[in-house]
Amino acid sequence: MTDILHSPVFLPGYALEAVPRYTSYPPATQFNDGICGGAWAGWMSETPAEPVLSLYVHIPFCRSMCWYCGCNTTVPNRDSRIERYLDALLAEIATRPAPAGGKVHHVHFGGGSPDMLSPARFGAVMDALRARYDFADDAEIAVELDPRGLDTRLCEALAANGVTRASLGVQDLSEEVQTLIHRIQPREQVEAAVRALRSAGISRINMDVMYGLPAQTIERVEATARAVAEMDADRVSVFGYAHVPWFKKHQRAIPEDRLPGAQARFDQMLAAARTLTGAGYAAIGFDHFARPEDPLAQAARDGSLRRNFQGYTDDPYDILIGFGASSISEALQGYAQNIPDPARYAEAMASDGSAIVRGVARSWREGRIGERIMQLLCTFDIPLDGDLFDPDALDGVIADGLAWLENGHLKVTPAGLPYVRNIAARIDPGFQPAGQKHSRAV
Questions:
Q1: pLDDT tens-digit profile of 72-98?
Q2: Which tens digits make up the pLDDT trace of 309-321?
Q3: How many percent of the chain have pLDDT more than 70?
Q4: What is the DSSP track for 58-80?
Q5: What φ, ψ does residue 337 adopt, rounded to 5°?
Q6: Is the peptide bond between 112 and the residue preceding it cis, with omega within 30 degrees of 0?
């Protein structure tokens, strides 16, 4: 993956192409209302005994709205909204159909900002999960956090409830960029959050960095990447800002004339990669970086790396169960998603006992295609499997030097690494261009 640094070729036809992130297969754009709570219950009854489980808990609240945000979140104007949501969440945890004998190896709290929960409320959710599920002794419990919402008391409560990893949104440390995205958090505030977490015993720290934000420059991206390395983050995710004001109306506050162009975005991505690998991080997939001793880097080396809705992961789950508004669950048979709106989610749990409203069933063939796409995104090398996709669809990316064929394998070239999602779309027989449903490749 570090070869990406030696082939910084900007190809606008690929960089600007809208393609799925392939955090699921079939992609979420194919979800439909044919999947409901009854379908999920049926899938769970057909699951082999004693599967490895992963749990996701969505907290859709923030203290203020960051204008770049593409997450499913809202700013609650009353504490009663959080309380009502928590009641529904606890009910779903207690009643959601699950396979017999499963053991939890991973829990992930996302948002929004899970630090919106008080220590007591967070403890109540963890108590409910542990009452319902059998946890492995070494289960990882990860929480996404806003550095601005952390204090010593909350960090100690998280640690007391078993949290082992925290993910902090850093994005960019330039004051001008932070002002334009409505998220002021000086480096000193992030450093204080890291100290508080580590003092409480939560030593594994992830950080998110973005490129393509208003007023960003290569120098500012490099400075932020250096800072997270100096703070000794274990993992760093580098994401491109997706400007979709027709979908996320608060993004209309972003001044479009301050957004970097496509070439500049590409150069910023490479700058972040160069800075992080120069600081000793291993490049994982196409947008993650990890210390060589981190389990994610180990998974990349031993071939067990995977990709799901949280990005690249070393989580070995058979079944992912999502709780809360908009959360997505995954079984061998397909995907199921809850109602996105928090208020309607709470209403559905109170009236129907289930909030699943959409999803997609996955055929055996689609499962195989999904495995190949995930393998491509994780290892950049897959068997051709001509029965799964049309090799002729690869002619363009091969002619453009992004991939080549060797001994019955499709291999991504160094020049093709930034465009691996484009290549994945060519082996996806169901791919249809959809400019306002997918994000740019770079």
A1: 899 998 999 999 999 999 999 999 999
A2: 889 999 999 999 9
A3: 97
A4: EE-B-SS--TT--SS-B--SSHH
A5: -125, 140
A6: yes
Give the rounded distance of the alpha carbon of 326 from its chain centre.
14
**CA-to-CA separations, 4 to 14, 34, 80, 270, 274, in angstroms, rounded:** 15, 41, 49, 8, 9
Closest alpha carbon to 378 in 338, 412, 331:
412
Is residue 347 within a helix (H) or strand (E), and if so which, with residue range?
helix 342-351
Please state the rounded mean pLDDT for residues 59-72: 93
Q: Is the pLDDT of residue 1 over 60?
A: no
User: How would you class 264 by CB atoms within 10 Å of its CB: exposed for 0-12, middle for 13-18, buried for 19 or more?
Assistant: middle
Say which amino acid occupies 260. P
**Edge-first strand listing for the sheet containing 328-331:** 282-284, 288-290, 235-240, 204-211, 165-171, 134-145, 103-111, 52-59, 319-323, 328-331, 334-338, 356-361
Is the whole model's pTM more than 0.70, yes or no? yes
**CA of 27: how far to CAs of 288, 328, 373, in Å?**
20, 12, 11
Peptide bond into 26 cis (omega under 30): yes
Give which of 291, 276, 307 is closest to 378, Cα–Cα. Answer: 307
Query: Distance (Å, rounded) from C-alpha 166 to C-alpha 118?
Result: 16
